[in-house]
Amino acid sequence: MGFLFKVLLIFAVIYMAISFLGRILFGTKRRSQASPYSRHEQQQPKEPETQEDRILDYQKKSFEKTDAIDVEFEEIKQKE
Known about the structure:
The protein is built from three helices and no strands. By secondary structure, the chain is mainly alpha-helical.
């Protein structure tokens, strides 16, 4: 059991050393996870410029939120 722990510990140390050297040599940085607050600031939609744009945005949002209703269709045959 102790041997397995030592082997895993050695692999972890080697992995961290290689990744550290890779970051130094290639200049790559680890992507930090943005907090929800900073992400919200980046994705703020711009304000509509006119009253008409605001109305259209509201109608679009209300249309997207409506639930779909299942409808049974009847086949209509044309009389010839």
